Amino acid sequence: MSRPQSIHVQWPDGASTLALRAVHHDGATLADQLAEAGRPLNTRCGRHGRCAGCTVELVAGRFLGRDGTEHAAPAEIKACQGRLAPGADTTIAVPARSLATHRPQVVTTFKVGVPAATEPLVPVVPGESDHGLAIDIGTTTVVVSLVDLRSGNIVREEASFNRQIELGDDVVTRIQLAGVPDKLDVLRDAIVGRTLAPLIAGVCAGAAIAPERLAGATVAGNTTMLHLLTGTDPTPMGVAPFCAAFLEHRQLTAANIGLSTPPPAMPVHLLPGISAYVGADLVAGCVCTGLNHCAEPSLLVDIGTNGEILLMHRGRLLATATAAGPAFEGGRLARGTRAVAGAVAHVRFDGEFPPALDLIPGANGIVGLCGSAYVDFLAQGRRISLLEPTGRISPSAWQTLPAVHRHHRDITRGVRLNAQNDATLVTEADVAHLLQAKAAIAAGIVTLLRRAGLAPADIRTLYLAGGFGLHLDVAHAIESGLLPGFRPEQIDVVGNTALGGAWLALIDRTVLPEMIAASTAAEVVELNLEPGFEDTFIDHLALP
Amino acid sequence: MTTLEQLSQAVAAGKSKDAKALTQRALDEGVKPGRLVDEALVPAMAAVGERFKNNEIFVPEMLVAARAMKEAMNLLEPRLLAAGITPKYTALIGTVQGDLHDIGKNLVAVMWRGANFRVVDLGTNVPPAKFVAAINEHRPQLIGLSALLTTTMPAMVETVRTIRASGCPAVKIMVGGAPISQQFAEEIGADGYASDAGSAVDRARELVGAI
To answer: Which of A9, A366, A505, B59 could cross-link to A511 by cystine, CB 3.0-4.6 Å?
Structure first.
């Protein structure tokens, strides 16, 4: 137990004095107290101390770690891992990237590779019931598009973080949480009540369309997200053989789901998935890109915490998922962030140090580096021999690196891309994490191709889907070995094809049967059981 | 530099092809396989583990070194067996039921081999009963359980309980994997925990009384 405490906080937008309420149980942490005070931090990993999301700087005072350690200022502390010691003049600084209030940069654009008709999936009565919702539920972000079913046009879009993030960063964390009594309901409410409901109300209000005019919805998402949406226990998907409770297309109603804004009887179609880890989002992408019709070998790759890969070859569809970890979303990296306003999206070395940095607009100053910037760094860092194939900073490059760009703490070395800004630091430990993530994706692609007797050169098109893909410099993705052995002209960046597929299925009733056919025909490859996967993974750890 | 010194360096640097070729060369030069292990491979892996603990190398470099070590051991193991040379300690290792991840587990297995343990690898998705049967068969001093998914931690609990209740010969149980902590290890009645493959060697040696 502790007493109320007044502390000084340096926020990104100014300083304030904050009264922290007394904690009512021994396990309460600084992160809990800040959340209670209305300033929740980015506790992405579910407050396990595994990510660096809630890192704050202790400027003055002491911090008592839950593990019994004590930190004196100045120190970087994880707010979810302890509490401030009582005492006057305690000051913390909270960097922008640690606040949970960032608006995401969500990919709502997508390329459609197939022709479509406007013959909606649901009955339309012009003037009365003539709009629909195409919904993509991602682990991180959720997009709701309002579609005029008379024209097929998207008239309004709203996006936000999936509020389940506060409960856990990745699908496995959420699957585990769902096994705790009552938490399945909490997770369901986070997506239905706290994420979808405001988005749906928002698109209707924004387009001045009465919710009564909503005639139907289609939903794409990974298998875990669709389980949690329907309050279905996902826990069997957490352990081998990873059994999903359902994968097939389901037609429910708004009332079934618990959505109160649309008419209760409004049909809600959950798109079909392939397996526990290759979900309806990939099936939607498969049909949206036209992958399922490709006569020549083609791939669909969606890079997130899991990399999902579909290969179409000679009428066969092979599907797999590879565990990349959160590095490309900024997780576990010293200055990593998602693609939010103020993030460095691109790094360009035009010869000399320092490189030019391109920011995602909308913030004052630099928040950190997002995945696409790290890929730029890997590719060009190797090209200019700053990095060795192992990912280490080369000793000779270190010697010639201007001192202001060097970072050296204990034996950890790093490079500050902008000498004045610590938010641009890349350490050797970051590079090691990135190499593992890129090796997981690369080995997934190569293993799947090998299974079909193919090489990268045999692929007609690699459709690169998802938010990460949209920001990515394709040439650098190839050069760094993330997309190994491909040529830039083979890569087609297609955006949010999960949303695109949901939209297509909504406006063209012939699309859903195609998705059902593709999902049932696909063969799942479990990479961990593929001979040679580990060897391939280790081969791809190095920078080319 | 002698062939053994070169081999040691090749393994530590993760040069698989060189490691294989140098192992063959040392054997051709008449170096006994046991000496090759003791004087080249064990010191190489000890150095790798030490550098890892000190944050001088990271997981990718360690994985590459472990693979080079494995290449060398593949050549040596049949010869060691033929010569009747068996390490003093035996360890079993496996990933618990429901979990198919094995890269971390394989890394620990190689590090233990490099510390001169005989390692019997039961693979992934190993049911508790299979661990018990393998303990009865191989009579190890040590058993290592791995789990990468938070969702398979309960299977680790169950495995420890089953081993303890089985009446099989006494064995020290070590646990590890991304979601595992010292506290969890203590709660489930394991004898030891290591946060990484480097400290897994130290912990293993302590548990079997080798140091």
So the answer is: A505
